[in-house]
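Hi there, hope your week has been kind to you so far. Thanks so much in advance, here it is:
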Amino acid sequence: MNINKEVTDFLKDKNHPMEQEIQRVREIILQADPKIEEGIKWKSPTFMYKGNIASFFMNAKSFVSLMFHKGALLDNKHGLLEGDGKEARVARFSNLEDIEEKKIALVSVIKEWIRLKDSK
C-alpha cells in the first residue's frame, strides 16, 4: 500500500468530522492495487495511476464525497458513481457501514480505471 505521509499529515491537520470514514475509503482504494498512489492536489487527497483517478471533496461534512475526475469513462456496473456530467462522477459514503457495503463497488471502479489505463 502506497501510503503518502503528506496525505496522512494533511488529514490529521484537517481534523475532519468524517476522518475515520475518509481513512477507511483511503485504505480500500490503496489496497485495491499496489499501483495506486496518493498525493495532495487541489488542496485535497487525490488518488493517481497514469493520471488522476479521484479526489476527496473535503468541504462535505456529513458524508464522504469522492470525485472521480473521468468517472464517465468507467464501467459503473455496481451503480456507485453518481452524476451525468461530461466527465466527472461522484461516490458518496454516509458512514462506515455504508462504506463496507460499497467496498466491492469501489474496488471494481478502481480496477476498471487501471484496466482502462493499461489498455492504452
